[in-house]
Amino acid sequence: MQTFKFISTNRGFAILIVSGAILGVFAGIIVNGIYSTGMISTWELIESPFKFSNIVSADTITIWAKSTEGTIYKWDLVECFEENDCAWKENEEIPFRRDNFEGSFSKFGNTCQFDEYITPRNEPGSVIQCALTYMDGYDLSQATYYALLDDGTIWFWMHSRGSLNLKLFVLTWSLTGMALAVVAGLILRFLATRSLKRN
Q: Rounded to two decimals, what is the model's pTM?
């Protein structure tokens, strides 16, 4: 009863909201720490009507691959997620690999276990070729892995880390904590008011 009465006051309501925001900040820091390890990131299949024989080139948002028929295709992550255009496009021009150029690099091998960056906890299948692409920004670094499997499919695994991620997680969770605190406060105020009327 005393808790209900305290929350029903403006001071109690304000303290509840501030507490929710503080708890949200701590939750955001914890979630960012977990995310930074790469545990949350997962492999995703790049849908394609044809099979591939090898990865020709790649960067953090684009991959060029040769199909089993010998045609080179390009797939762009930004076009897929922002413009909803996820189709592979025929592309005869092979781009220049930006190895160790302007804070970017790419590594190719027959496994996705590279030493330069956080590696995925597992691989999506039997990998015959893998490309790690990396871009280092001012407050955010991003790595994208592309894995070609023995069945001709290509998968990608993307991960980013940096101060920008921390800011976004803290902001999102602090706002979430405040919102939950407001909802909880309104419910408690309603219960307190109804309890006082009954008495």
A: 0.64
